[in-house]
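Why do we care about 3D structure at all? Because function follows from shape, and shape follows, mostly, from sequence. That is the central idea of this module. The next example makes it concrete: a single protein chain, its amino acid sequence, and then its structure expressed as tokens.
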Amino acid sequence: MSTVLNIDRFIIPSDVIVSLTNIYRWIGKNSFFTDTVKSDLNRIVEATVERDSFFLFQIMKLNITDSRARLIITKNSAPRTKDETTLFRIKEILRKIQNNYRSFRHQSNDLLDIATFLFSHYHEIKFTFEETEKKSVLKSQSKRSKRLLLDEVNNHIEEISQKKNFEKLTLYLNYYIDFYNISPFTERNEETGLILLFLLILKSDLEAFRYISFFELLYNNYSEFQTEVKNASFNWKEGFAQTMGFIRFMLALVLKGYQKAYDIIKDYEFDINLNKGYNIENTITKLPEIFTKDEIRNLHPFVSDSTINRTLIKMRDEGLIKPLGKGRSAKWIRITQEKIYGKN
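And the structure:
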């Protein structure tokens, strides 16, 4: 029985609350990430899509060599086999999700569209049926489409989301367990579920996974992921699913992802500042022999004081310039033209 439909009796323990609190602190840094990369965001997201595609291909164990996979992912090489077609389409669906995840829906028909887009070249994919408790002379009347159950769960999610009376990430992780156990399609439920999980992660504002590969982290922890999903599914049909272990696992994965993304962004910021430093060095070579920080600032209005100071200290330590006095208004002097231009 659906965990989402019974979410009102779901109790979040204190250690999970602590993890969620830490995650929301990281979510508060989302704007720092985007402000740092600025115009490079689209290029970075595209690189993430390529990396996600490669590791999802590994998770799905598609029959493609690594060299062919890289050609399809990075060079848009035309697919030759059904598995290569799947990989080609995986990249396309991941790109669509990255670019439109806020408006990307996960109703039953949307999920069927994803499954059909990715896998219909193998077999036609349809909604399957479940047995009901209703007794009927006709066997067909004792079954109902699993689409109805999936719609019921989705409608409950929308109702909860509108009222904002339950934490979103925990709700979505329970929804993934529901989808896994409902298994609504005639085939390819597990693979479609992974795409759904990725969508739900981004819809939870976990923007770290725009900069690093979610599926790379999942691939490196996939056996544990599978174990936690199976543990969470135990007694699901009876309405006693225990999803907390799975949620703890996923929260730890998210925290690991944010730390990795933060480290990458800080390295990116350092590289950008390093390039700015070179620009400032070049400016100093063209200023009068005696100059001030204000003259540099006027030519580089969007460069931070810390970057200017770092460049001045670097050039001072290299013996290229020296200060004439102390304080904010102190002047600087270039020592020799030969050293500045690297002449002997």
